[in-house]
Design a protein that fits this description.
There is one protein chain. The chain is α+β, with helices and mostly antiparallel strands. Helices cover 35% and strands 27% of the residues. The protein contains 4 helices and 7 strands; from the N terminus they run E-H-E-E-H-E-E-H-H-E-E. A 5-stranded mixed β-sheet has the order 2-4-5-7-6, covered by helices on one side. The chain has a two-stranded antiparallel ribbon with strand order 1-3. Strand 4 and strand 5 form a beta hairpin. The model has no long low-confidence stretch (mean pLDDT 88).
Length: 154
C-alpha cells in the first residue's frame, strides 16, 4: 500500500534545483525549470522526488559541456505532463522499457553510471501508477514525460 501525501509540484522541483545547481554549474550545463505554479498532487512525495532526481541527475551527467536541460509542464484537464529533456547522447526507449538491465555507461565528464537510477525510476513509476514515456528526439538527447494526476487543494 502506497501512503499518499498532498503537495505542490513546484516545491519538489525547488529542492531538486537547489540540489543539482552546483553540479550543473560545474559541468556548464544550463538548468531551465518552468513548472506551472499551483499543480497540487496526491502521491508518495519522497518516491516521486527520487524518480525526478534520478532523471535530472542523469540529464546533467550525460549532457555535453555548454548543453541545456529543460524541465517544464503542460496542463491537460485534470492531468499535467512533466517533461525532462536533455541534449545528451540519448537513451533508447527500448533500453528503458526492457526488463533487461540498462547498460552502464560513462557521463560526458567520465562519471560512472550503472543504470540503477533509471531502473529505480522505472520501478517506482510503475508502483506509483505514473505513466512515463521516453523518446529520443531527432535533434538528440532524451525526453522523459511523466503523466501526473492533479487534485484540488482542500
Amino acid at each position: 500500500v502506497v501512503v499518499k501525501d498532498h503537495f505542490y509540484l513546484e516545491d519538489v522541483f525547488r529542492q531538486i534545483r537547489s540540489m543539482f545547481y552546483p553540479l550543473a554549474k560545474q559541468k556548464k550545463v544550463q538548468l531551465n525549470f518552468n513548472i506551472t505554479p499551483g499543480i497540487y498532487l496526491e502521491n508518495h512525495r519522497n518516491a516521486m522526488e527520487v524518480i525526478f532526481r534520478n532523471v535530472v541527475h542523469n540529464a546533467i551527467k550525460f549532457s555535453p559541456k555548454g548543453g541545456a536541460e529543460e524541465v517544464y509542464t503542460k496542463r491537460r484537464d485534470n492531468h499535467v505532463l512533466l517533461f525532462i529533456e536533455d541534449e545528451g547522447k540519448g537513451l533508447s526507449p527500448e533500453a528503458f522499457y526492457s526488463d533487461q538491465a540498462i547498460p552502464s555507461s560513462s557521463g560526458t565528464s567520465g562519471e560512472m553510471g550503472s543504470g540503477l537510477g533509471l531502473r529505480i525510476t522505472k520501478t517506482l513509476s510503475s508502483k506509483l501508477e505514473i505513466p512515463v514515456y521516453v523518446t529520443t528526439p531527432i535533434s538528440g538527447g532524451t525526453r522523459f514525460c511523466f503523466e501526473l494526476s492533479i487534485i484540488q487543494p482542500s
